[in-house]
Structure formats: structure tokens, C-alpha cells
Prior knowledge:
Mean pLDDT: 86
Low-confidence stretches: 177-182
Radius of gyration: 30 Å
Shape: extended
Oligomer: single chain
Largest sheet: 8 strands, antiparallel
Number of strands: 14
Structural class: alpha+beta
Order of helices and strands: HHEEEEEEEEEHEEHHHEEEHH
Helix content: 25-40%
Amino acid sequence: MTQPSTRATFKDYCKRQLGWPVVDLNIDDDQLEDRIDDSIMFWNEYHYDGAYKKYYKHMITASTAKLSEAPSGDFTDGEYVTGGTSGSRAKVHKYHSANTTLRFKFPETKDGRGDANTYYSNTTNLFSASETITGGTSGVTATTHSSTAASLGDVDNRYITLDETFIGVNGIIPFSASTQNDNLFDFKYQFALNDMHRIGSSIQSYVMTQSHINMINDLFVGTPAFRFNKHTDKVYLDIDWKSDVAIDDFVILDVQVGLDATNHPDMFRDIFLKRYCTALIKKQWGQNMIKFEGLQLPGGVTLNGRQLIDDAQVELDAIKEEIVAGYYEEPMGFHVG
């Protein structure tokens, strides 16, 4: 038999390990699918071949308001637009009259706190459907869409949304003026162009100076703090969203991505995944049979679901001990200093 390369052939492989088709397996196909899903999730999280490191580039998105039609003029970049019904206002971000989507940021509203004429930051009360919005500087008006008025982007949510294939975030590449500038006037470009040839024998001094600069940067700038939970699929950046990043800027995340069968069918050949999934299926088989424990069939055969469960649990415990011992994890890196 060839090695499994699809979910269906992987399922048949695990069943053959348990005696099928010579032995009938008392297990439903949906239960088999569930156990395969469980084994893949476990493999993604604990096996060094179950996930891979990736640098994920994400563009910071603006909040948007869908318009019923394009206005006659252009809203001014940076001006406030105010809703006639909701009373909310927000800053326009680079709008052109050919568009029917208005991009904005930093929505505010009067919510009764303190001075009734004062606007407060708010990410709940946005523009209403079918209301007229007016530019405070340009005087341009438009009407929001009747069903989809407004939605928040990254800059106002203050988080980045990832899909479920991301199982961990290791860090965020620091962003600053020097890292976001790659034009002719960038310091690194000018240094390489004019001063690199002067280093010569003073490479030791250069390395020490760079180390000192990096230490100063770590002390006064540091790396962006973040919070991530894979069940929310959101990366919360603990930064100043009004000054540290801007709409359409790119943020680079150092992430762990779990392998999936669609893009990486070779994963079904992994011996650890085969062993673990087969043990899970055996345990499920035993759980299905346990209610018939002690039942004697014709010929004197006695059903023993409990023995199947115990055997499967021994195999699962052995696999987990190997995980704890670090057989399938990346070795810890050295830390100096």
C-alpha cells in the first residue's frame, strides 16, 4: 500500500492498523472524522513538524462607511464628518469622490458625560444607516447605505485579526521611522553607499557601536507589546494607535502556523500523527463497545470494550510521555546575557 496522502487514505490507514477490513470496527464515520481532527490539533501544537514559523505581513485597515452613492465632491483628508442622525463624527482618511466607501478613523460621539458639547472617543456608536453625513471643512454631504452603514477597522479595533491556522505569535517586528523608511534618504541606505567602505579594519568598533545602539533602542523604544489567544484569533497591540502606526502601514508578525491537509497533504505520512490518531480511534472503539462488556457471542467470544480503552490509554500515555521528554519539540535556544 502507498503512504496516505489524503484525509480519506489516512483514515483507511488508521482503520487497517486496528484490523479493518478483517475485523469490523464498531465506530461511526463521524466519530472517525472527529478523532482525526483531534489528532491533527494535538500534532499542530506539540510536534515540531506540526507547525512552522512564518513572518506574516498585515496592512493596518481603516474603519469604513458604505455610502448609498458617491457624493458630488471630495471630503478633505483629515476633516471631521458628522452624522446628522447618530451625532457621531470621525476623521476622513484619503477619500475620493469616485468611491462609495468612506474610510475614516477615531470615531467620537457626545454621550452625555461632562459638557454636552464635548466629543468623546467611542467605538460603539458609529454612523447610522441611511443618515446624512457632512464634512466639517469641505461641506460635502453624502448618505450612508440603507443596510451596511459602518464597520470598524484595525486602527479603531486596536487589534489585528488572524485566521484559525495561526496557533501562536512569537513577537512583532519593531516598527519605527527608521524601519519604515526605505527611500533614498534612509540612514541605512546612505551608510551603505558612503561609509561602509571606511570600516575596513575597524569592524570590531562598528560591531560594538551597533550593539550599543541596539541596547539604547531596547531601553527607550523596545519591541511592541502584544496579547494573543488562538481561540479569539486576535492580536491586541499595546501601542499608541494614534501615533505609532497609520492606516495602510504594514505590521510584520513572527507567528507559528499549523500545517493543514489542503496545502500540506504530506503531513499524513508523519509517523507520530499515525500513531496518535490510531490510538484515539481505538479508544473511541472501546468506548462504543463498553456497554456490551461481558456479552458472550456465538462461539464463546466475549466482548471486552474495557480492554480496548485500557490498551489505547497506555499507547496515548506513552506518546504524551515522549512529548514531555521533548522528543518532538524544538530544542531550547541558548540565551546569553
